[in-house]
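Re: [help] complex structure
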Amino acid sequence: MPLSAIAINCTLKRSGGEQSSTDRMIGLLADELRKHEVEVRDTIRIADHDIKPGVSSDEGEGDAWPDIRRRILDCDILIFGTPVWLGQMSSLAKRVLERMDAFLDETDDQGRMPSFGKVAVAGIVGNEDGAHAITADLFQALNDVGWTIPSAASDYWVGEAMQSKDFKDLPQIPDPVKQGAAMLGANAAHLAKLLQQQPYPGVPEGS
Amino acid sequence: MPLSAIAINCTLKRSGGEQSSTDRMIGLLADELRKHEVEVRDTIRIADHDIKPGVSSDEGEGDAWPDIRRRILDCDILIFGTPVWLGQMSSLAKRVLERMDAFLDETDDQGRMPSFGKVAVAGIVGNEDGAHAITADLFQALNDVGWTIPSAASDYWVGEAMQSKDFKDLPQIPDPVKQGAAMLGANAAHLAKLLQQQPYPGVPEGS
Amino acid sequence: MPLSAIAINCTLKRSGGEQSSTDRMIGLLADELRKHEVEVRDTIRIADHDIKPGVSSDEGEGDAWPDIRRRILDCDILIFGTPVWLGQMSSLAKRVLERMDAFLDETDDQGRMPSFGKVAVAGIVGNEDGAHAITADLFQALNDVGWTIPSAASDYWVGEAMQSKDFKDLPQIPDPVKQGAAMLGANAAHLAKLLQQQPYPGVPEGS
Amino acid sequence: MPLSAIAINCTLKRSGGEQSSTDRMIGLLADELRKHEVEVRDTIRIADHDIKPGVSSDEGEGDAWPDIRRRILDCDILIFGTPVWLGQMSSLAKRVLERMDAFLDETDDQGRMPSFGKVAVAGIVGNEDGAHAITADLFQALNDVGWTIPSAASDYWVGEAMQSKDFKDLPQIPDPVKQGAAMLGANAAHLAKLLQQQPYPGVPEGS
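Output below.
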């Protein structure tokens, strides 16, 4: 079965305005995944949707999460894209993680969460500083709720401290960021393929 | 080839004194790995060794890291055990991560660090609070330097806030901690086996 | 001039349902501040309001932030209350911090942000683990945007790892948490009074 | 009484070799403090001393901490300087924090730790990314053990993501970093003076 990936863009801006730096990073990672025969589906711009606060999988009337949740779990690979604000991930990125808290209670009879066997990678952009802190918080939370993290799974760009250059405005993407993307794409595709073919066995309840 | 694992215990106390809570956690995780036919070798008590500050793989005369580095890289799975102090990992845990910084420059001609294809898991114990913060910092740093993180790869115990109960003194290990260990063992062994049989391909230099 | 304080409760639940553990913690801290002649005004339940995503002080039509921002900046002390989810602060807490990013550009001719001379403290509750991580992220972000942090400014409660006891259901608040609140109240009131009487001088532009 | 400050440099390198970027940052902050009549004493290069692992104030024979602890607590202001490695503070910085854990038990009869009324600021330098994460971990740990954090108390420099420029080699220090230092110096001196003149009252035991 061919591998599939989906991206979420947790920028604070809705679609339709200026270009998003986070989208440029997601595009870079998506292109690398495609080189490994991964079908990269949509990028979901979180700011366009009304994901309600909460820790269940459906917070009722008007909640955009059930549909987004389904689309994420339909794929083998999640590209988690977020900008940096105050050195931390956006509140929209935090909202998505929060809603995945429900996975902890949605285990099958082998104790496996719906995210088991799926692979997550991070794409992070900011004007200056914060990518490692976000990687830490992302990987801890994503791993808690069942995602597998391939080797070297975070690609990022930030500019010099306290400056305001945007990733979207760089005339070209710096080589180390491109190389990071190439390795991330190769690692994520390889690991997702292995886990698709041979899923985690889990641990039977009561064992 | 049978899988092998090694543990590091980053408690601040040398061997020979009182029992280490971190050792009890490591023991729990090691037992679970053994159920999946993983040969668990030593637990290296970091406080017994003089790992020099630095970011190279050999800081010269008297540096204990080259030998510890070799023993870690001889195995497929690393159990990273650390206590919690002030809500953060110990300075000895930090020292070990720091020395792994050198992996970034020790890539083969496919761009792969020596840790590529190896799996890391965390065992964290404290009197109260701090396990998630340490998981975050550990997984970010370990993943940066090439380790793969299986699903639900951190098992931990902390007591109620601002109290001083020790994990080593619990009459029995709480069920959720045992279940976490069982799942961690199953996931780590499964993923390490897949990566042993089918290593990451890497990305050829200059591609 | 008498000191004033305001609290924000970043629970994911709207008012009107079950009691909030975060409210109980805020109540404890508020009582201690009142012992030092601080007028504690409202607790703003963030989930009741529509604070828009963004990093300006007014995101337009329907944005609840301008009013909340004004009420926060009318006071000398901010009690920042948040629950723990996945070991991290709530997305609503993150949203509030994000909106304070605008303070960085709202300096007076002495370079002082609107938060200069104001004191922030944290009240954090969860079932298990995460308070130190949230304290770290909160104090970094709040301090970046100008808040002063008095000695020992975080009070928290979390239960034993991987359990589900709620702070609101404890028959009584544990002594160390009460003592933490007493010290926090004394320290915050003392420091806020000093800064009210003798504001930071700032640094003249172009000096 | 004139104010005094001391700096610690947590670079991994001993004195006597190449210049330290962290020293350059410390020098910048020290100069700003001197403009406010603060006597800035030594910079303690932690790598030159053998601070033992542990969480007491004296770990016995050969432990350099008791003397360093005394020198730090003799001053009103601590400049905490650390480099960035893997997006985190150095293991030597972590060691210093760990030893301050003992302050929690060294309270006077008003419940005040030896650090009460003292002010801490951070100076952080790295090639690329990590300053906010370190600020978070530093301020949480320092505040836990009693230090007060003045407004905007972290100054830092990191270069563009994944590059290797050193702060010590910049032909000149960028303006925003200089402005950050000027504000940090003014804020720290102001707050330390207030707290020197009017110490925290603390909370009597058993109250």
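The two ends of chain D are 32 Å apart (CA to CA).
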